[in-house]
């Protein structure tokens, strides 16, 4: 199934997986991913490591950089770190931005087990703002609840934050802040319609491949009752605007 729209995807995992989700096969390497992109009309995507354990993030960030070097027109590389590591986490972001030329950072407060609005992470988010590193943050339950991430967005208005998975709570965040994008993986068409109504320039298509599948994620956006113009923005144009400089 080839989408009628050219697609830019704001949420794609790449590389070897940690020991999660035995029912799915989240390990995917770059050639297989590019084949998938060609199959589904995906022109560009944000790619970042699978969730991992211990101190494996630096080596998985290296792999993302190798892939971006191989396919610079198709991939926008985001690294991962465990922000609980304080200065080490900041140093790793500096390394992957300056030495590996990755663009942004993916955070998953549940997997990395940190409460984003805790004072301990002030220094971290202040540094991300200073480095102009855009963030993609998983939203969901507990530490990943959109309300906690909204607090960070409000405290650091110059930090660009993409709220992953466009949950109901993300709509409230989108209304309240100027620096928030939402990304559609795993959402409902109704939430896309409401978000586009709030501001169609801040909604990005996301798939969460390989955890979710393109036919389903594309069908969700296709089912949203929004204008063709808004659909083009969601599928690709908003992403292109956000990453023109990269
Ligand atoms: Zn994901």
Short description:
With 246 residues, the chain is of the alpha/beta class.
Q: What key phrases describe this protein's structure?
A:
alpha/beta; 9 helices; 8 strands; binds zinc ion; 246 residues; TIM Barrel
What does this structure look like?
This protein has 246 residues and is an alpha/beta fold. It has a single domain, classed as TIM Barrel. The protein contains nine helices and eight strands. The chain has an eight-stranded parallel β-sheet. Helix 4 (122-131) links the parallel strand 4 and strand 5 (135-138). Helix 3 packs parallel to helix 4 (122-131). It is globular and about 45 Å long. The model has no long low-confidence stretch (mean pLDDT 94). Bound molecules: zinc ion. Zinc ion binds next to strand 1. Zinc ion binds at residues 11, 13, 208, 211.
Number of strands: 8
Oligomeric state as shown: single chain
Taking the sheet with the most strands, its summary is: 8 strands, parallel
Span of the ends, CA to CA: 29 Å
What is the highest CATH level, the class?
A: Alpha Beta
Bound molecules: zinc ion
- Rg, nearest Å: 17 Å
Number of helices: 9
Q: Beta-sheet strand percentage?
A: 15-25%
CATH superfamily: Metal-dependent hydrolases
Assign the CATH topology. TIM Barrel
Low-confidence stretches: none
Placed side by side, the strands forming the largest sheet appear as: 1-2-3-4-5-6-7-8
Tally of individual domains: 1
Report the average pLDDT across residues: 94
């Amino acid at each position: 199934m080839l989408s009628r729209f050219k697609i830019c995807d704001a949420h794609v995992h790449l590389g070897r997986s940690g020991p999660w989700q035995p029912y799915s096969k989240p390990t995917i390497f770059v050639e297989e991913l590019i084949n998938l992109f060609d199959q589904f009309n995906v022109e560009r995507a944000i790619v970042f490591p699978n969730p991992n354990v211990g101190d494996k993030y630096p080596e998985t960030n290296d792999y993302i950089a190798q892939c971006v070097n191989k396919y610079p027109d198709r991939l926008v590389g985001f690294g991962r770190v465990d922000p609980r590591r304080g200065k080490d986490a900041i140093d790793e972001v500096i390394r992957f931005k300056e030495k590996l030329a990755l663009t942004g950072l993916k955070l998953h407060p549940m997997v990395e087990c940190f409460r984003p609005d805790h004072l301990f992470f002030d220094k971290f988010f202040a540094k991300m703002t200073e480095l102009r590193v855009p963030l993609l943050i998983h939203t969901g339950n507990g530490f990943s609840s959109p309300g906690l991430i909204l607090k960070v967005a409000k405290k650091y208005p110059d930090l660009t934050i993409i709220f992953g998975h466009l949950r109901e709570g993300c709509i409230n965040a989108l209304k309240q802040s100027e620096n928030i994008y939402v990304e559609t993986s795993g959402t409902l068409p109704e939430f896309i319609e409401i978000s586009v109504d709030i501001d169609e320039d801040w909604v990005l298509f996301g798939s969460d491949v390989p955890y979710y599948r393109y036919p389903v994620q594309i069908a969700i956006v296709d089912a949203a009752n929004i204008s063709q113009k808004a659909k083009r923005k969601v599928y690709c144009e908003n992403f292109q605007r956000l990453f023109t400089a990269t």
